[in-house]
Write a structure and sequence with these properties.
mainly alpha, three-stranded antiparallel β-sheet, binds fe (ii) ion
Length: about 500
Amino acid sequence: MSAINYAEKIPNNVNIGGDRTLQRALEHWQPRFLQWWGEMGPSDFKSADVYLRTAISVDAQGWAHYGATKMPDYRWGIFLADATPERKIGFGDAMGQPVWQQVPGEYRSTLRRLIVTQGDTEPASVEQQRLLGHTCPSMYDLRNLFQINVEEGRHLWAMVYLLHAYFGRDGREEAEELLARHSGDADKPRILTTFNEPMSDWLSLFCFTYFTDRDGKYQLKSFAESAFDPLSRTCRFMLTEEAHHMFVGETGISRVVKRTLEVMKEIGSDDPARVRAKGAVDLQTLQKYLNFWCSSSLDLFGSEISSNSAAAFASGMKGRPDETQYEDHVLRSSVFEMTLPDEKKEQVPMLNALNEVMRESYLKDCEIGLKRWNRMIERAGHALRLTLPSSRFRRSIGPWAGVPVDPQGKPLEKSLYEKRLSEWIPSPSDRAFVQSLMQRVIEPGKMAGWIAPPERGINNLPVEYEYVRRRSWSSWTISPGVLPNGKSSARSTRRKRTTAA
Ligand SMILES: [Fe+2]
Ligand SMILES: [Fe+2]
């Protein structure tokens, strides 16, 4: 088991000190990363002490270290899971051959593109979430947001390490570009659409961490199977960090449902207008947020039929999540039956249908939370059930792109679709309502009125623990800078402290 060396400027467990050129290149990138964090990371919490976990080793006990840290002092570094001795390629045409410790020339540009696309999502989400600290529903939630943010920053380090260590000059240039693109920027946006969506409320954050971080889990799992061993080892460790992000999403939505059910009981009504009047999120609005973020995240898997995914699998670059669960690892002779928009069934070579295979197993994984939330709703005696939208709904990639279907996947007239869309995804007035609930609550242990407290605190500490300490909470300045929607905020806004609900 490799311990992490924190004595070096860049903490790592891959002995970067043994390669002076690499070390110099990364030490050159490090101040640029810190500058990016300063400008695009969580706004206005640079001097706050945050109760964060830091990895001290890459095994299961590696998260033993928790303590108060100022975010800019977080020890971002390069941590790879331990190598599996004699590891062999587990799928594709080269199955059974030894894994690659270097990038084969013929796969260089494809692998670089895959790593850059993954790497781009990591800082993008930090940028999307940078202002959320201002409207946190509790100090516990604020801490969780910052934990996610520093870990997404570390995920960027993970991908930048691969680019620097294995892709020469092209890799170094790509690493610079990862800091130059910004979420929602009109000229230089992030690569994938979901990571350019503005995120101005915590309901969106919980949906994002439930659906979009789960896409991240699936991508990382498929890279963990890769024949390019450094990529596999990097992603295996990233997965241990990702689990917390999805936990925040799942428990966040659970707490919203719980609070809404309490309010419904209190007022003896499930009328959405009355639930809203009591300052809770009505379940119909929650459903719209689920539809929005789930459908947006479904596009991240790519087109239903894809020769790129076929090539990535056949070559060994990218497998399926948990590849060992399947029987056939070569897929040269299997087919996948796909239903296309004209209801025509098509037999597609399985290799070309892998994006869809992944999307289907992702949706199954998404169902787990839905079942839990629906059990809560059922126990409270209400008939409504939350659902996932059909994978055909609101797609912008693949054969269903632009095809007007309702959230159940039923085709309808385009004009009717456009008219009804605001019944299915948040309308401007839904967003304005959710925004109106976003009042900052920072007294330790107190919760905003729209969310129930968590069942337990962090690392066995009580929920009331002071997870984030800053010198003064009484006045507040939003720094001018780039907002998640890419527009620059020219003025500073001073806000009054809001007391806990
Ligand atoms: Fe990540
Ligand atoms: Fe994540």
